[in-house]
Amino acid sequence: MSRIGIRPVYVPQGVKVQVTPTTVVVEGPKGKLSQDYLPEVEIVVAEGSVVVTRKSDSRQAKACHGLYRNLVNNMVIGVSQGFRRVLVINGVGYRAEVQGSLLVMSLGYSTDFAVVIPKGISTIIEANGQRVVLTGNDKAALGKFASEIRSLRKPEPYKGKGIRYEEEKIRRKVGKTGVK
């Protein structure tokens, strides 16, 4: 039995969950999200919680059991509280700014990068363009956008320059002059 899949998802006040034979729709104060699911699992709304059960003990059903429980849980959290991801930009002259629906970043290259901010994600620049705060209700879209930004200039281990997540630790290396 899936340790994650058997846990019910508690639905807070103000959040509505609707289940159709192929789709789950969650609506709350921060928006509306929907997710398709496979027929190997059954999703039931009962008394302030959502329960995901599998219909058989097949390998596919076991794989989907915990997956869909977590997807529904992330949807409920997203429409009630929202998600937040912070990126830190390190480097001399490295900075970011928002221009309309574009995130424009100077990252030490000859030209600036302009990235289109997806719908449903809000971007705030803090600390003189050194911190990018991303917020949204869809955890997958937020994580994908944050990883796309980070991939423009990954942090390097010698000087620590680049874009990193706020909670990420960069293992620093000693350069040539430190070895004797």
Features:
2 helices, four-stranded antiparallel β-sheet, three-stranded antiparallel β-sheet, Outer Surface Protein A, domain 3, 180 residues, 2 domains, single chain
Could you characterize the architecture of this molecule?
The strands form four sheets. The protein has a four-stranded antiparallel β-sheet with strand order 11-12-7-13, covered by helices on one side. The model has no long low-confidence stretch (mean pLDDT 91). With 180 residues, it is α+β, with helices and mostly antiparallel strands. It has two domains: 9-80, Ribosomal protein L6 (Outer Surface Protein A, domain 3, Alpha-Beta Complex); 83-165, Outer Surface Protein A, domain 3, CATH 3.90.930. It has helices spanning 59-80, 139-151, and strands at residues 9-10, 16-19, 23-28, 31-36, 41-46, 49-54, 83-90, 95-99, 102-106, 113-116, 121-126, 131-136, 162-165. It contains two helices and 13 strands; from the N terminus they run ββββββαββββββαβ.
Number of strands: 13
How would the global form be characterised? elongated
CATH architectural type of the largest domain:
Alpha-Beta Complex
Rg calculated over all Cα atoms:
21 Å
Range of helix content: 10-25%
Total number of distinct structural domains: 2
**Major β-sheet annotation:** 4 strands, antiparallel
Overall pLDDT level:
91
Low-confidence stretches: none
Classified by CATH, the class of the largest domain is: Alpha Beta
Number of helices: 2
CATH superfamily of the largest domain: Ribosomal protein L6
What is the element string, with H for helices and E for strands?
A: EEEEEEHEEEEEEHE
Q: What's the end-to-end separation, in Å?
A: 56 Å
